[in-house]
Amino acid sequence: MRGRPRNWAKLKAFTTSARGVLSTGDTHQIVIRSGYMSLPDRVKYSAELTMPNGGSQTIVSVLNGLKGWSQVGGDVIDMPREIYTIMQSEAYLQWITSLVPLKDAANHADGRAGEQDRGKTALGVKVARQGKPDVQLYFDPESGLLAKAVFSRRSQARCWNATTAPTRTTTG
Of 87, 103, 160, 163, which is the most exposed, with the fewest CB atoms less than 10 Å away? Predict the structure, then answer.
């Protein structure tokens, strides 16, 4: 990791944007999302989902420590426990992609076989921490930069998968 340790703290507060696919069971939706984060426990996402019928829906979700809420179609609701847990996991994913937590002994990192991405074999690292979902990080073999991060979270009836190509702007 480049830079001085005192600068790493700036990676806790940033904005991010992502475009990807949200897979829940047999349903796959294109998602364009922007986020404002003060990690590890404060997150605001604004996401536009392309619905299977061709329409779109905007969802705003906020995680503020031990509380969470969502706004869907103008209605504001307390975040259901299952969604709160998923948001916590995604905040953890974003925290891991800052790479700062890899210096924490509580996180265990293992080199993994690469994955083909745009004709190149990305370098893989699996990050594990007790009580958190495993995160797969993939690095571009030429630049060494983080190219993709993936995690899965199982709940009672669903398997949630998130794949992101991190883009962030550090603030503060």
Answer: 103
